[in-house]
Amino acid sequence: MTTAAYACDPAQSRGRRHAEPPAPTRTEFQRDRDRIVHSTAFRRLVYKTQVFLNHEGDLFRTRLTHSLEVAQLARSIARPLGLNEDLVEAIALAHDLGHTPFGHAGQDALDACMADHGGFEHNLQSLRVVDALEERYPSFDGLNLCFETREGVLKHCSRRNAEQIERSEPGGVARRFLDRTQPGLEAQLCNPADEIAYNAHDIDDGVRSGLITLEQVAQVPLFGEHVTATLRDHPQLQGRRLLYEAIRRMLSALVYDAIDTTAAALQDAQPASADAARAIGPLVRFSDGARAGSAQLKSFLFHDLYRHPRVMETTGQAKEVVRDLFERYLADPAEMQSGFAARSDTPRAVADYIAGMTDRYALREHERLTGRRLLAGTP
């Protein structure tokens, strides 16, 4: 794989927190990707909500399928820019490992429960998963990933949490949130790939669910222009084929926009190394027009899909599940698995335990502890 001078080079990695001998046939970033794919947290993503709860349909996206789509899009953008595809893929596959069950509803509920105990951030939780919570190796906790992968996993971080990480890891992955520099270009790239993925698949899932219509979303210019172009080329097309073709065209347009806009920014900046790119500022980006169009689409999805009464009904019950579980485990830690029950920081142990649950395991535990079954229809 040929990469540009500004790409992260696995041979020049800032390394792992625990030294390990190199692999004979894989680069360090390939090893990271493989460790993520084989992790317990990654497998659990298949039963974690993206927008629709797992029981609502077999074809709706989950956190796992979302992560796979982000990885595909990220690699498609990385290759023509000369970035390291293995690192991009590793970051994309790991970026949601810390998400709670029940999507953003579960995250919001757990953050509220932890308000007096340091709060809950899913990006920080993803770092906790790969640094500490995975138990797979005899000599260390976590997956012992490279610095470059870990900095990409920590997409966002409050100043308070950044200062806390900095105290335990001076000059480490949280330093950029304090000195306002950027992560490597591969980490920067995963943000637009994430945005492209969820805008596209939330249109697909929203229309499939019947909560929004193709006609509604076609009123949003970013998507509507591709519906119009599709019908111009295929006047008889309708239904799912029309939906899928318009989504495909929108995906392609956003990917090429990110490639072209980023390539122009790199040409202007001329970073001579990965560290030079970190110091310059955000370089991976959409054009102004695409960014505005994406923001408008996100606003539509927020109001018409994520805040749809049917979604809000399940959101309320999901938050109740998380709140009830937190209260029960906090009052009686012995109800958790022994490894969590034995920890001295009980609130954080409870948060770690709940965040690692799948939707259906959380519902089973809730029914066991409360005798009530919420979100009827869940297996």
TrEMBL record:
Hydrolase among keywords: yes
Task: Enumerate the Gene3D superfamilies for this protein.
Answer: Hypothetical protein af1432
Q: Which HAMAP family match?
A: dGTPase_type2
InterPro entries to which the protein is assigned, alphabetical? dGTPase (IPR006261), dGTPase-like (IPR050135), dNTPase_2 (IPR023023), HD/PDEase_dom (IPR003607), HD_domain (IPR006674), PHydrolase_assoc_dom (IPR026875)
In residue numbers, the region (Disordered) covers 1-28
Highest rank taxon of the organism: Bacteria
Q: Can you name the source organism?
A: Ramlibacter terrae
What's the protein name?
Deoxyguanosinetriphosphate triphosphohydrolase-like protein
What's in the keyword line of the UniProt record? Hydrolase
Which Pfam families did the record assign? Answer: HD, HD_assoc
Question: Which part of the chain is the HD domain?
Answer: 63-199
Keyword Hydrolase carried by entry: yes
Q: NCBIfam families recorded for this chain?
A: dGTP_triPase, PRK01286.1-1
The record's comment on protein family reads: Belongs to the dGTPase family. Type 2 subfamily.
Q: Which SMART domains match?
A: HDc
